[in-house]
Amino acid sequence: MDLKHSRSVRLNDGHFMPVLGFGTYAPEDTPKSKAGEATKVAIDVGFRHIDAAYFYQNEEEVGKAIREKVADGTVKREDIFYTTKLWTTFFRPELVRPALERSLEKLQLDYVDLFIIHNPLAMKPGEELLPKDASGNIIFDTVDLRDTWEALEKCKDAGLTRSIGVSNFNHKQLELILNKPGLKYKPACNQVECHPYLNQSKLLEFCKSKDIVLVAYSALASHRDPKWMDPESPYLLEEPILKSIAKKHSRSPGQVALRYQLQRGVVVLAKSFSEKRIKENFQVFDFELTPEDMKAIDGLNRNFRYTKLQFAVDHSYYPFSEEY
To answer: Distance between CA 37 and CA 33 in Å, rounded?
Structure first.
């Protein structure tokens, strides 16, 4: 395999996705400029896969960072694999393309490499990211995911995105799309929470059987945003087994957690805005975990989810009631 693709996986539509991605989400109290600065550092370090979303509200900054790195000759636009996500208030088919065009305008890019449905939970259309009623409950919308998917297929045909996929879908929701009459493109990926405490082995097996790439977010479970996560949650990187494997390889527990995903055939996202950590997260290609290491990490699985999307438990498409 040529060097450009040696650290990439081939998607079911023929495009290549780098197996290690840089995540750009930050809690609300983090200045948006930080996402731009960190993206530039990540590109300098070697990251070529940038994972972002309309919902993160920092696409102007991230887009500017990418354009600056193209302008200074560090990378060409085609070297970068950029993902954005369709937010849940834009699921009605007529809103899908305008939503992507809005992201492209913020980014000032002609196309994105991957456009994915952020999660299966449609919400009331409008400018509010989290539309709420008078008592503070999220206002849902009823949209058939297959209709939303068809609108994504049209975005791909229009050249606004190279590939299309989903995020936070369970296997039944994937099947809903895969069995859609007249399906033109299968989802290229399913981006889900995945780490040693929630290793998603059944969903991974299912996705592999359908030629859908599993992409892991919260792979280090370290952002701990109280808005989405219970502050009492265990600290993954304090896990003694990860620490002892890390020590054996003279690595950090974070590097071991990332390497674990790569060896399972999972594309993994690493999110950090610290220069030291961004560099460290990229150093995962020059060591290998043994079969014993892999088995020990597999043994840490406890189906523990950091991001439960509790507010949407009553939504008809709530994805986490299924085992996988």
So the answer is: 6
